[in-house]
Design goal:
Shape: elongated
Helix content: 40-55%
Largest sheet: 4 strands, antiparallel
Structural class: alpha+beta
Strand order of the largest sheet: 1-2-3-4
Length: 182
Amino acid sequence: MANGSWDNSAAPAPKSGMPLWGKIAIGCGVAMLLVLGTCVGGAMYLSNKIKKDPEGFKKQVMGFALDKLRPEWDDFRAVVDKLRTVEGCKALYAANPDLAKTWAKESDFLEAAKGWQKDLEPLPELTVDVLEHHGFQLNKQIGGTVYISYRAKKGPDVSVTFDRPHDVRSGSPRKILELRVR
């Protein structure tokens, strides 16, 4: 009884400072403010860039889109080029067994090709005009098929469904699952 108290329990003194949950809450709040500030700043920058030069921004976005779509378009153009000749049609039918679902024999395919070959024009290079005014459609299924369709000003509409997206690393050609020429 050195201090004159009957309480001899050695309870620890209360800690001074902020508890752990408070430190975590402050850290999350700071992180949230940084993310919000970055989003607002990015939106303001993009808005200002669009207001200053809307045509330049549109060209930049369309250029990016054209670069992404060009490999698919080039494969589609190669198919259309083959459809324009008898030899190309024979090679196309031989390389794509799924065409037999629509045309049971090669002779059926060649007979159908006679109807569209005279009107089928070569496809142009991929440009913004093609994307905006020619009924170009491209539908990619994630990890699956790719559907491409093009409506020409004159001549038949062509649509092709490939078995997979264009892959530069793959040395094997893509298979055509479905072909329509109307």
